[in-house]
Design brief:
Length: 367
């Protein structure tokens, strides 16, 4: 009788099959390692590009005093954002400097008493950047960028509010005997310059378009503004005028201010604070132009960092602190209205070119 092989035995894999499987596994491992190393190299390159290879870079900003508090909050966000500019990590420092003082220093030699020389200057309005561009055309790098706005309004004594019912910008100079508007100039008086631009465009009948240099220098506009300034009650400055509107008197009834300036002044002053009147017609606004400076002591890296900071202010909610302070910022809500400021709808006046801005500022400034 024949015999059978036991069912418990097993037949092993051939050696050549095992060798083939091992070779495939080695190839897969080598390929995976190469992919991992390549990815790591690329990531390290990206990480290196995103680090401060050149270290920190000090970026000094001279800003109008009205901007300082809220702009410092914006700068804190920028400084902690990890922004890298030309392999530097810029750190922004905001210093408040009155615009006429900054203009004088930038037109000549920067005074160290004002703080470090800036790479970026943000005054209240184009009145100041226009004068700098005229005095030193090479000083401003590119076109200044507006970081916020605030329309000019008339801050009016509460007891005189009805006198201003239905007032239009075009009628303001002729109604000066009743309106008794003071027109301070100098630091913090951009409301006066903006009111002059608004009235100048109104009497020139621009229909909301920018007033031309020819019209701004013409006898109709300059004569109107000269007479308006000559008949205005005298005050030391805009703050003194605002304070004067809160004490019993009738020699002074109003002063032009920016909406934000009145909003900040009236905070905590209750019912006695002046109220904003929005005259009818196209209205000029303070634009808070950010001017990157191309001057001795400002490096190319600082100019690039200054541009990056301005771009940062214009993105997403970065400028929210400015809106909360009463500035008008694109994409941000204005604060709730107060007894003094309603943040009402304003018909915009197109910004004038630098020569027209200077001509109007000269016409409203007492000689």
């Amino acid at each position: 009788m024949g015999t059978h092989r036991s069912g418990t035995g097993s037949r092993g894999l051939a050696r050549w099959v095992v060798a083939a499987i091992a070779a495939v596994l080695v190839v897969i491992a080598v390929a995976a390692a190469m992919v991992w190393l390549l990815g790591r190299s690329e990531q390290e390159g990206r990480d290196a590009a995103a680090t401060c290879v050149e270290g920190e870079l000090s970026l000094k900003v001279a800003a109008a005093p009205a901007l300082v508090e809220s702009l410092r909050r914006v700068a804190e966000g920028f400084n902690s954002s990890g922004t890298v500019s030309n392999d530097y990590c810029p750190k922004v420092e905001i210093t408040g400097v009155d615009s006429p003082v900054a203009l004088s220093a930038l037109s000549g030699t920067w005074d160290a008493k004002l703080g470090p020389a800036p790479a970026l200057w943000i005054p209240e309005s184009a009145t100041w950047t226009a004068r700098l561009a005229a005095a030193k055309p090479s000083e401003v790098s590119g076109q200044p960028t507006s970081i916020a706005s605030s329309p000019v309004v008339l801050a009016v004594r509460g007891s005189a509010r009805q006198t201003f019912d239905g007032v239009r910008w075009v009628d303001v100079p002729a109604r000066q005997p009743d309106l008794r508007i003071t027109l301070p100039t100098g630091a913090g008086a951009d409301g006066t310059y903006l009111a002059a631009q608004t009235v100048g465009a109104a009497v020139a009948r621009t229909g909301g378009a920018a007033i031309t240099e020819e019209a701004a220098r013409g006898p109709l506009v300059t004569g109107t503004l000269n007479r308006w300034a000559a008949s205005a009650p005298k005050t030391a400055n805009t703050t003194a005028a605002l304070e004067g509107l809160m004490v019993p008197s009738d020699t002074l009834r109003a002063v032009p201010t920016t909406e934000q300036q009145l909003f900040a002044f009236a905070r905590g002053r209750g019912e006695t604070a002046p109220v904003a009147v929005y005259p009818a017609g196209p209205t000029a606004s303070a634009t808070y132009p950010a001017a990157v400076l191309d001057r001795e002591g400002v490096s190319a890296a600082q100019r690039r960092a200054a541009s990056d900071f301005v771009a940062y202010v214009g993105k997403a909610d970065n400028a929210k602190p400015l809106a909360e302070a009463g500035f008008r910022v694109s994409g941000q809500s204005t604060p709730a209205k107060t007894p003094s400021v309603s943040f009402g709808t304003v018909e915009p006046l197109a910004p004038a070119a630098n020569p027209a801005v200077i001509a109007i500022a000269d016409a409203i400034t007492p000689k």
